[in-house]
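It is worth pausing here to work through a concrete case rather than discussing structure prediction in the abstract. The textbook approach is simple: state the sequence, then state the predicted structure, then interpret. We follow exactly that order.
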Amino acid sequence: MKMTNRIYEPSIECASRKEIERLQIKKFNRILKLCKKSRLYKNIPLPPKISRIKEINQIPLTTKDQLRESYPYGSLTLRLSKVIEVHTSSGTTGNPVPMFLTKRDLEISNQVLARTWFCNGIREEDIFMMMGEYGLFTGGLLNHYALIHLGALVIPMGVSSTEKQIKFLKDFKVTSMAGIASHYFRILEKFKELKINPKELNLKIAIAAGEPYNEETRAHFEEGFGCKFMDQYGLAEINTGLAGECEYRCGLHLPWDYVYPEIIDTHTKEILPEGETGELVLTTLDREANPVIRYRTGDITSITHEKCKCGRTTPRISRIKGRVDDVLFVKGIKLCPSAIESVLWEMKNIVKPEGWKLRIERIKGIEELTLIVEPRHFNKEVEDKIVCKLKEELGIRFNICLEKNNFSHNKLKRIIDLRSI
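Step two, the predicted structure:
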């Protein structure tokens, strides 16, 4: 693979939109034929073919529930003998969603994801520590394969103990790493316990992914680790490591030859104009084992097709603002988790804003919100200040529970909504 200094595959990443649309139409028409062979799309009206790319917008949306209902083999479009590997979503709220891979699927995945890692700044000379979970989770193995395809030296650390991760960072002179965003807080805490200065390590780039996090959190990581932090986006139903930031960090570049993106209004399901915020919908263009048409990701973002300063012409999504199912209506007020986090960062001198959780209950018909947060000092004055600040900024009164947070390698579950229980 011939690479420029900054772009892995310029023939695709710097192509014109018209060129790519012709390619998208050709690939999608192939996908249409395959989808008609799966039970998943058996009763969904699909056109025989499309002649314009926007005709995809007229096809019914696919939901996660539909994918769950087709478990385990209902989404397959080929004979099982053609499949060489399977990964799944977590399945914490029902059947997991499988992602099947043929040999061709895996080869294309490696090429597309290598493009994302290169965009993030990873190079073949890197010593890379992968802290994603291996096994069924796509974030470990599929990214591992792609990094090897790129040529990097990969340490498959997985979710080992934080002490072991730090030992390898030092001993192997790791230059880049990736993991769940919230786990980096735990590493920073362990640095303090072990009296290690992370700025004396060899780290140049870290990727924090798997969870939405704001710019304050990014700045906190960069100050703590002394290296650049990049964002990445992926999902088990489509592929991990699907989109990533370039050095200008003005959105995450999507592989437009691999997926076709749309932004819809969550309620009306209408296509939103470029630049407006809504729910991301993705169609796979180059997966043959179980392609997915117009999948509702549940992730809130916006999209632009403007050429990036890095030279890429690929569409860019803004950093994920949250999940459709995370937007809460409490006491008649719309409440977003990101708003709570922003207020806590404003109070970072008295609280640790990284590990908060919100519990919502209905007690005797009245909604009660309890914010669980770790203070820097445990006293009533801190509690009162948090209550007042949240009320002032968000217009809602919260009960406050001060407790020490224990970080894990898993994604943080921020919202605990007990109202329907």
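Step three, interpretation. The first helix runs from residue 10 to 13. Residues 117 and 244 are 7 Å apart (CA to CA).
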